[in-house]
């Protein structure tokens, strides 16, 4: 084994700077996983940090010749385990390919390397008077390569869509090191069969994105918003339905269940008066935002809200949305209160919007049945929920209970006509669930696509399929 | 051959009503082509009109057992020849599968069979207070199955996107008659590799859509608009750029070159005072439409418009947009004036928005060089142009000149960083051009996808690839 690694390092060094090829235990350990719990993680043999497309090609050519698995990795913020190392693999971390290649305001596009963070792209767009909307919670750190690999979403999606909607053009390195371009520089393109969308959300199993051109939009104005507190999930669900039925297009529509509200309320938030409320935070960045927010506030009241706070300026709206942003901190506090070894695990499930309230109720029932603490937040306008399970990872009983709760939530989502993942991906965590959602024939063809692009099966093996 | 056809008819009759299996010369001739000129057309052996998914499956099972090519067909409005029969094939016309299965206002979706026309879907959505935006010019007749097969667009796309953006879920019958479902009922879904987008725009080469669930949107209010007349394409192009740069999101942004303007002007239109102007028609359906239209009118004037007419109410806006809608009639008149056997042929090419004015100028140069009459209209906001060539199809010289002009326009589009088709598809017409646009490796994988889904090569053979 050792000789193999030495010989692999030697071959990699023919194309990469030796300092970008790491075999030390610290680097290997740092790059062994992403941010998903529960998933099997192996010890990578080598971690490489390519700095150019040619270097990515060299790594893949070398790996395919030596039949070594390669796990592509970005900021390691993934929540489904697609970035977790397999035993003896080469982890290819793309953070060093982080140049913004072009911002074209007249065509409203930007061309970037995969290691550019979502924040950096947003800032570059903003400097040109434009916006790149997709905003996964980890946008400060996560990379565009990872966003494309997972098909990432965020708070904005209810109005502005997901990562897949923004990719115009893409260059990938395939398993054998060859380079392939897809897409076009035009707004519309229907020339041939659309292979590009295969790669978006394929979690590094089909190829490695080395360059992407994304669409940008006009910069929206600051949003106004409201925070509504409801005595029940059903009344909050009714408000979501009423807002949609009235034809509103909010720029954010976030929900916090009573447990999440309680946790944030313990930290203290000036507007969260009822710690047991289900909260809905709705924003509008439309030119008519004042009247939109007033109308949506009225709909919340009609749906049974016990209290509605309207942000009459963007600072107040910011403060209201902050209740949602405080959730991670509140959960860390919650975890600490459970045990020093407690962790929080964020789930991702989506159902048709009309089944949202029922899913929240089912998650509450799961929490009670399994005896685990679960707070649910989510993108209500998309029917996309993130139940967050907090449990002591060192306690075998709690670990089992958390896993059982996770399984129950997946089942409930599918039973309610939903999907096992709206925006985080399948990774290693949901592989077994995929067969419960998709048509067996479709699954067989997904595997056929994988074989077509990676006949040796060296690209992120064991992920997704 | 005759025996084969008889035996094929017998087998088809095991699953279809005999009256839905037609071999008469009239039916065969009526269903031999779509609306594309220049393409090779064969005489189909049989035309079938299945009425259910099971019948589509029966046709495909029969065809694959007997190794007979099948050409799926809708309203025959296609402009690239994907619906043209090949010699001895079975044409499967899906117009009889035309039920609207469900409209779900709370989830903003509709489920339809493939033979539903775009107009019928729009009306069903509208009856539920919602909109299905995609609006190809043929929307009165063209079917959703055809829209999905071609990845159809329209006037609305500049603000509301294309057909591919609206498909949530799809069931297809594959070449061997098996049934496969893809997608989900949720707004977001990243479970597994996205095979559904392969089928959108694949022009019937991978499978036959038998059911689709599409997203609907809130019904926009009536648009206001303006008609600006420019002394040159470059000043019209500057106006497009200025409107985009100012962050406007028009709901339509249509362009007519001087030749198209002249043709409409001959029919008579109250607002077209200068028959040699390049015209830009811009609409807004935003809540701020009054001020948007005023601001965009000012930008047109600053860019050098010789005259700007603002539609101060929706009736006037309608009248202005009518200038664009009069183009087909004006072209029929133009064709008649050339010869009783003259036809008009609508092209489809798209470039990055910044190259739009240059492409229009190049098309004018092509018209002069080749000695053919070409009027250009297009979706300016998307950089998507439709040059329309009017020529006498019976005159060999004009036929050759028209084909040469077509080739020149494709070349110019590609040279300007564009695509050979923004929304009409490749069909048979642009097959040879596809290799000039896409990466050879991508083309090889497109063929791999085709082989994977249709190893016998019986589904719409010779189209696209």
From TrEMBL, chains A, B:
InterPro entries: FAD-bd_oxidored_4_C, FAD-bd_PCMH, FAD-bd_PCMH-like_sf, FAD-bd_PCMH_sub2, FAD-linked_Oxase-like_C, FAD-linked_OxidoTrans_Type4, Oxid_FAD_bind_N, Vanillyl_alc_oxidase_C-sub2. SUPFAM superfamilies: FAD-binding/transporter-associated domain-like, FAD-linked oxidases, C-terminal domain. Pfam families: FAD-oxidase_C (PF02913), FAD_binding_4 (PF01565). Residues 40-219 form the FAD-binding PCMH-type domain. Gene3D superfamilies: 3.30.465.10, 3.30.70.2740, Vanillyl-alcohol Oxidase, Chain A, domain 4. Keywords: FAD, Flavoprotein, Oxidoreductase. Its cofactor is FAD. This is FAD-binding oxidoreductase. It comes from Salininema proteolyticum.
